[in-house]
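pipeline/complex-builder :: batch 7 item 3
reading input block
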Amino acid sequence: MSRQEVVKSNSHMVQKEMITRNYDRITGGTAKVSSTFVPGNLNELLMCFDIANNLPEINAIQNAMRKKSGEMIAEAERSGHSEDVCTYVKADIGMMAKGNIAPNGKPFPDPDVLLLSYTGCFTFMKWFELLREQYKCPTVMLHVPYAADGLPTKNMRDYIVKQLKEDVIPVLEKVSGVKFDIDRLREYLRKSAIAENDLVWMLESSKRRPSPVDCYFGGVYYMGPIFTAFRGTDECIEYYRLLRAEIEERIAKGLCAQSPDGDMPEENYRLVVEGPPNWTSFRDFWRMFSEAGAVVVASSYTKVGGVYDYDGFRHDPGHPLESLADYCLGVYTNRNLPTRVDMLARNLVEYEADGLLINSIKSCNSFSAGQLVMMREIEKITGKPGAFIETDLVDPRYFSAANVKNRLESYFQMIDQKRRAGGSAAAAGA
Amino acid sequence: MSPRPVGEIVAACEEIFEDLSFAKAREWKAAVPGRKVIGYMPVYVPREIVHAAGMLPLGILGGGADMEVIHGDAFYQSYICRIPRSTIEMAINGKLDFVDGMMFPSICDVIRNLSGIWKLLFKEKYVRYFDAPQNFREEVGGVFYANEMRELRDGLAKLGGREVTDDDIRRSIAVYNENRRWVNRVYDFRADFPWKAPSAEVYLLMRAGMVLPPEEHTLLMREYLAAAEAANRAMRDNCRVVLTGTFCEQPPLNLIKSLEMSGCYIVDDDLMLVSRWLLEDVPTEGDPIGNLSRAFLLHSAETAAKYEPDIARKGSYLIDSVRKRKADGVIFAAPSFCDPALLDKPMIISRIEPLGIPYIHIQYAENSSQMQPIREQSGTFADTIKLWSAS
Ligand code: SF4
Ligand code: SF4
């Protein structure tokens, strides 16, 4: 078997096929198309109107993994965009300028609607204003307030529900020509909750030793269907069932998590990771961990499209619009820093991790502004050592392999030292 | 008492500006036992509510050009704008120790997370992240916003140990209406006679308004206007520009001076937007919170921190300002790493370019010290405009 084939499990192949199918639908010319974002996406609602779901962030990631994002970013900067801003936006704008070709090789159609579900990041708002300049299509705003005191309030929830009823749904009805049917939405939400149960089971399977999964590098694949155009579908339920069966099999065989090159032979370090990964050198980045036997047992990035484990949220067919509101409010980056700290600290303890690694993304203030404070707080609470690396999402100029590798190596040494010293809190604080 | 000459008024404002320990606000607080001070960051918060609670709204606009940031760098990575790090630095150094609470408006992800840092570091303090609606319909965004203001009112009432009544808020609305009228008068005067009211002076005058109680600031502006009108100052052959993008982290005073020295009169700007955010008087009759809410929804400034639902209106605020102020061009000045300002810029440029409005773009940090390149750039810009308008 080649190296490539080793990592392609059945669920992986199924997912690949699902993604391809979604791109074929988007570019097929028959369905109406909406662009929207991953955090707080309203997939079930879009399905009620038979609207295909296109996610510019995912396109930026796809282009980065194919090493195409660098030239797209350069193109956007040539057209007047600043070096300093979010590189997802520039990758998307550069992609438009370069013909707007989808990963299946066909051109993206102009969206019929931009669904500006404004969750967890202000840049989204500017991003869709910029896309609106290009497409001049209807843009519907769903403003999701920031859960600044840790919990959503009634006022926030009512505001979102009202926007859904009075702004979002009427526009989607108009764009699609399909009348809204709340029972259809309930049915999709019921299906979402089933898949969400298995997703959480997957996330929590890494509490085992060895962990059968990597919840960061592997996690980005596992979360694909539920965070994108499939939440609420039967195939999503099927995907997570299949994934669960695969993981159960791995557990039965006592296997460690997978790496880009097959199963990791042994698990030396268990980490919790905060922040998105780097996409332009994704596999090299992953190998820096797997070659040292480091597995990520929990990460905040697997909560960016919705938090299902921390406080048990599930989409609720009994309260469809309220549950969409709660979902949007509860996305990881829409939670305040004390909550993010609590979430990660609990992960460190409950998943018996050796430490917290922060991958700070240069151009993403939503994640990054405040991470140094978070790291110190989490070290204080857990007594476990933190480490900080800096990369970028899709801009290859900001991934310095040598630098990252050095940092990681010293971090692993630090964990070793702490172990030799008996894992005291004092050593962690040093 | 004979009226103070303009230089003296400006010197007093400069003293307030340079004083990062906020002596004036401390004095205000100490004058009556039990008084409370609520700090707020730019861009917009309803100061009327804070004022109605009997508290001093204190505008905190970073550490400025000269403050050395030592601790702040341990809180923020280098690729984040400077204002949060200098603000944290001030808090850690005890410069804000007399501040009883902080309000963080919804501008961007940096400020949002800064509110969380405050909660982590200063657990005993009142911290309010103040969300404003991006939906501008009264029955949707308006209801949300009014409720947020009520929560703010109740939070402050609890902190202050006394009820905040509708009448209290009505009175404060009147105070701020009056203050805003004078702010606008100063801006109008500067646009009409920019040589009589240099922008660096106007800036210092407005900065004083961040620290002084609004009633006192209003008196100061009246005094300034009278003195500036009376002063005999020479008109220069400068071009007229609108400065935009400076709504949050403030440029160093030297930058404002440099622009003027290089030949540009700033005839409008979005510096300290909070004092000009509402474009019309807020009615003092009826439900005061409803009135504040409607003022925000229907009559507030357009800025990068706000969604513009109507694509046709994007940039119209700036275009109107160029027209109203008879400006010759626009200077986009954005703080480095500022997503809202920098992402908005290409859209705004696409609106002014077809109208033939000349523009340049500069980037700064509150502590930028190299003014020479900026002076050269704006000097060339001014020369080009003059040549162009002469031809
Ligand atoms: S700033 Fe961060 S969260 Fe926001 S769009 Fe960019 S990458 Fe996504
Ligand atoms: S300068 Fe810009 S990025 Fe920085 S806090 Fe202000 S609005 Fe946010």
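note: Chain A is about 50% helix and 10% strand.
queue -> next item
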